[in-house]
Amino acid sequence: MTTSPTAVRFDDDTLWVSLSDGRTIAAPLTWFPRLLQATPEQRAQVELSKNGLHWDALDEDISVAGLLAGQPDLSTRGTQQPA
């Protein structure tokens, strides 16, 4: 059985994804720089698929599997120095 996203919401610091199995995943927006910098209107333009989330205008794709694994946006890794 594939767990798919059913809803997405944001607060000031967090991406919240509701899943078809009843769970809700929270991930810090700092993991996704394009979403962090986006306006609320841009964030609202999300497309849900059986495997994840897509924002066409932001060129952002987030998989449910990646969220469940605690995986941040890897496209910017290597450009930041460890804290």
Descriptive notes:
The protein is built from 3 helices and 6 strands, in the order E-E-E-H-H-E-E-E-H. With 83 residues, the protein is α+β, with helices and mostly antiparallel strands. The chain has one domain: Uncharacterised protein PF10387, DUF2442 (NE0471 N-terminal domain-like). The protein has a 3-stranded antiparallel beta sheet. Strand 1 (5-10) and strand 2 (14-19) form a beta hairpin.
How are the SSEs ordered, and which strands pair?
Layout: E1 5-10, E2 14-19, E3 24-28, H1 33-37, H2 40-43, E4 47-48, E5 52-55, E6 60-63, H3 64-68
Antiparallel strand pairs: 1-2, 2-3, 4-5, 5-6
Write a short abstract of this structure.
The protein is an alpha+beta fold. The chain has 3 helices and 6 strands; from the N terminus they run E-E-E-H-H-E-E-E-H. About 15% of the residues lie in helices and about 35% in strands.
Number of strands: 6
H and E order: EEEHHEEEH
Query: What is the averaged pLDDT score?
Result: 89
Number of separate domains: 1
CATH class: Alpha Beta
Class computed from helices, strands and strand pairing: alpha+beta
Q: Count of helical segments?
A: 3
CATH superfamily: Uncharacterised protein PF10387, DUF2442
Strand content: 25-35%
**Computed Rg:** 12 Å
Q: Biggest sheet, strands in spatial order? A: 1-2-3
Largest sheet properties: 3 strands, antiparallel
Classify the fold: give the CATH topology. NE0471 N-terminal domain-like
